[in-house]
Amino acid sequence: MKRNFSSNETPNTGFFNQMLIGLILGDGTLVKKYKNGNTYFQFAQSIIHKEYVNHVFDIFKNQNYCHLTSMPEKDAVFKGKVYKYFSFSTKSLPEFNALYTLFYPEGTKVIPATIGDLLTPVSLAYWVMDDGGKCVPGFHINTNGFTLPHVQFLADVLSEKFNLKCSVHGRNRIYIWAKSVPHFESLVKPYIIPSMVYKLTETPE
């Protein structure tokens, strides 16, 4: 898989790869069942994000990476309450093996040392659509699935590569300072789909 992500430029030929980096940082998962086998990608989102998950699914489907032509609605039970969601998995493909090695060197998702070369505004946008949210006066990215050292490293990368003033808040979340939010929004907004623009404008209740 091509990994020429050192520039902030986002040529159309690299859009899928850049998107994939953001999805892996967010709710996407890479799975490799056998040591010498290939890797597949899994993605799931709540039914309230139907337009977004369909958008992502259609991109993978158009790459001929999926067996399914549409996604079934599924149920999950948490603390006695039923939640509806959509999910899909791709075919097992050699194209994903290099990224699996980067992000899952010991079988658990981590932040690779080369993440600064991989991240672009497209990656940021898909990461934000998965895990971001406005919080007055700044912006949070929910990175609590990673260890504190990895989250701090991500915050440093955002600061150094994109000139975003960041810090780490409680529950290992990245906080983008208010003074950097306008610049941050200018980076990601061109790639945010209409149904997810609320991530940049609405604060959680």
Provide the descriptors you would attach to this structure in a database record.
Endonuclease I-creI; 8 helices; four-stranded antiparallel beta sheet; alpha+beta
Number of strands: 8
- State the helicity in percent bands: 25-40%
CATH topology, what is it called? Endonuclease I-creI
CA radius of gyration: 17 Å
Assign the CATH class: Alpha Beta
Put simply, the count of helices is: 8
Mean pLDDT: 90
Compressed to H and E, one letter per element, the order equals HEEHEEHHHEEHEEHH
What is the CATH superfamily label? Homing endonucleases
Q: What is the end-to-end distance?
A: 41 Å
Given helix and strand content, the structural type is alpha+beta
Largest sheet: 4 strands, antiparallel
Overall outline: globular
Could you name the ranges where pLDDT drops below 50 across 5 or more consecutive residues? 1-13
Which percent range describes the beta-strand content? 15-25%
Query: How is the largest sheet built, in terms of strand order?
Result: 1-2-4-3
* Domains, number: 1
**CATH architecture annotation:** Roll
